[in-house]
Amino acid sequence: MKLWSESFKDGDPIPGEFAFAVADPAQHARLSSNLNPHLAWDEVPPGTASLALFCIDGDAPQDGSDVNRDDLVLPVEVPRGDFFHWTLIDIPPGVTALAAGQFSSGVTAQGKPGPAIADGGQPWRQGLNDYTAWFAADAAMAGDYYGYDGPCPPWNDMRVHHYVFRLYALDIPRLELEGRFAGPDALRAMHGHILDEAQWIGTYTLYSALAKK
To answer: How far apart are CA 125 and CA 76, in angstroms?
Structure first.
């Protein structure tokens, strides 16, 4: 199975229009267009009954207390973990591409609705992304963040973040998940049903010394 994007090359920086925030000299960062990127695929294996798509940043700092602080920088070596930016499941096997901006355009305070999507009668669903927990204590932004919300790594982080878009071909038409779910729930539900997978990786940083390069 092959996955690709017309929005950025594999291994290259993700353009700011596909990010949650872009660098801003006056205030470190500001909200961006937050479009989901274009993605397309082919060579889906026989027997595929649905597809599942994830976008995961594996470079997210695990301790949020030092994030976005003027008095320090986050060194490359601090502990890292996964931050889910997108979980899209129950994609019909006949679908071969997602258009740029099809599922996200602009930052939606308190999150986009979900999990079901009204998109031409398609059965697909989106899970909660990790901005749900990130904004939980922010009265203006707190809510359930379903679907795609793009990169917004800490602006004091010296590490360039890698965003992995990974597509799975599954042998079942619908994952056994009900109601509210997140990326890790979908990954667990897929266990034993994966026929093939493919990925496309983009990078992003808001750290001024790196963003200027």
So the answer is: 35
Tokens of 81: 């973990």
CB-side neighbour CA atoms (13 Å) of 17: 7
Tens digit of each residue's pLDDT (9 = 90 or more) over 168-198: 999 999 999 999 999 999 999 999 999 999 9
Residue that has been written with the tokens 């998109």 in this structure: 119
Does position 212 have pLDDT exceeding 90, yes or no?
no
- 210 φ, ψ (degrees, to nearest 5): -90, -35
Percent of residues in the chain assigned helix, strand, coil, to nearest 5 = 10, 35, 55
167 beta partners: 53, 198
Model-level pTM greater than 0.85? yes
Residue with tokens 């096997």: 93
